[in-house]
Design a protein that fits this description.
mainly alpha; 19 helices
């Protein structure tokens, strides 16, 4: 039995590598158009491929597949081979043509010329691939590398576009939206490079915007008032928030908002205090006070309900550790679980009613401040917060922007909050 399994793996691996090597050779000698046409014939046409050995290798793989995921891995890798024509610099035209190719068959019935059983199976496999996380990640990547000259302003036509088109605006989502578990190290490295570039660009644009506002007297370093929100700036607002929303957000994220402290100072003070705490139970009580002090809502009823829910959630968080000494591990686990409670828990449990209620009752800025206070206390959970926003983004990516304005505002405010508190942008003069 073991020998049979090993033989199966060797045969499958051999055929896979044969196909990969074939495309690796092609990208050095053929044009983009020729490669796309080969891709179409091999994977979609199922007959007439010029190299019969490659076509036979693909057909031989099909009966060896144990599940759809194995095929997704193979096709996904082939896609990345053909778009990586120059040392991990993605070819926009090839990727966009690939997307068009797959989109044509995503909802189509099988053509009548698919005669053999394996040919029919291949069509089904390719069609199912177009609903996979790998393919959706490819489509998001296409949005990122095809953003030149695109306007994201809130015009009628832009608001009718799917949320997916906004993925280039949020570098903090890239690692969770553009990378899947079977991507190569080289792809992950390329995405991190693009992420750094886009994040740097946003921080520079935001810094220029704020500096321009100050130099022209539209805002002062001591106060961001409603009068500061005149539409006088020649340097464009780099977010999808209006001027008033953006300037109010910056004031909250970097200004002195609680007892003469900004959020970074307040978090450092809290961290210093926790070093004196003996038990985990005492920490949770203090953490509740830390989070609830800045919570204000127009509705006293909602404020009371939320604080009550937060208190119970903390009370029920890892209760078996209540009497144990408080430590950094418990801090990280607690912050992670509270982020799950406030935003969304996981892909498997995508419910986010509380987050919707927070956005509706206290608004996007205050909601973001609440999340920021958690991440500033434990920097290690920043990727967990980003992942949770990625879950929401992926969940709604096919919805129109106009239909999820609340999520767009949450994403924009989070981009500003993380950039001003964790990025290289210096807005300390606004303190």
């Amino acid at each position: 039995m073991k020998n049979s399994l090993d033989e199966y793996k060797q045969n499958k691996s051999h055929y896979e590598q044969y196909i990969y090597n074939h495309f690796l050779q092609l990208i050095d000698i053929e044009s983009s158009e020729e490669i796309i046409e080969r891709f179409r014939i091999l994977f979609l046409n199922s007959s007439g491929y010029p190299d019969q050995k490659v076509a036979k290798a693909l057909i031989k793989i099909i009966p060896l597949l144990q599940n759809q995921e194995e095929f997704n891995f193979i096709l996904n890798r082939c896609c990345y081979i053909v778009i990586n024509r120059e040392r991990y610099i993605y070819k926009k035209d090839v990727l966009l043509d690939l997307i068009k190719l797959f989109d044509k068959i995503s909802n189509k019935s099988m053509p009548p010329y698919y005669g053999s059983r394996n040919s029919k199976k291949l069509f089904d496999l390719v069609q199912t691939f177009t609903t996979s996380q790998q393919y959706l990640a490819l489509k998001r990547l296409a949005e990122v590398i095809n953003q030149e000259g695109r306007s994201y302003r809130n015009s009628h036509s832009a608001l009718a576009q799917p949320l997916r088109t906004l993925i280039p605006r949020y570098p903090y989502l890239y690692q969770h939206c553009l990378i899947t578990s079977d991507n190569s190290y080289e792809h992950q490295k390329a995405i991190r490079k693009i992420q750094r570039q886009e994040q740097k660009k946003f921080e520079i644009d935001l810094s220029h915007y704020v500096t321009y506002q100050i130099r022209h007297g539209i805002i002062t370093t001591s106060e961001l008032t409603q009068s500061s929100c005149q539409n006088l700036n020649k340097i464009q607002n780099p977010t999808l928030l209006n001027d008033r929303e953006l300037l109010s957000a910056i004031k909250q994220f970097v200004g002195k908002v609680e007892n003469g402290y900004n959020y970074q100072d307040y978090a450092k003070s809290f961290i210093t205090y926790t070093k004196q705490i003996q038990s985990y139970s005492c920490f949770k009580d203090s953490f509740y006070q830390y989070l609830s002090t800045s919570f204000n809502a127009d509705s006293r009823s909602f404020s009371y309900q939320f604080k009550n829910k937060l208190y119970k959630q903390l009370k029920n968080t890892m209760p078996h550790n209540n009497d144990k000494p408080f430590n950094d591990f418990l801090l990280m686990r607690t912050c992670d679980q509270i982020l799950g409670f406030l935003v969304v828990e996981s892909v498997q449990k995508p419910q986010h009613f509380l987050f919707l209620n927070l956005m509706s009752n206290i608004g996007p800025i205050a909601t973001t401040c609440l999340l920021l206070k958690i991440v500033l206390v434990c920097h290690k959970v920043k990727p967990y917060l980003e992942k949770r926003f990625a879950i929401l983004f992926n969940h709604y990516e096919s919805s129109t922007r106009d239909g999820v304005i609340w999520l767009v505002k949450a994403l924009e405010n989070t981009q500003v909050a993380l950039s001003t508190n964790f990025g290289k942008i210096d807005l300390s003069f606004l303190h």
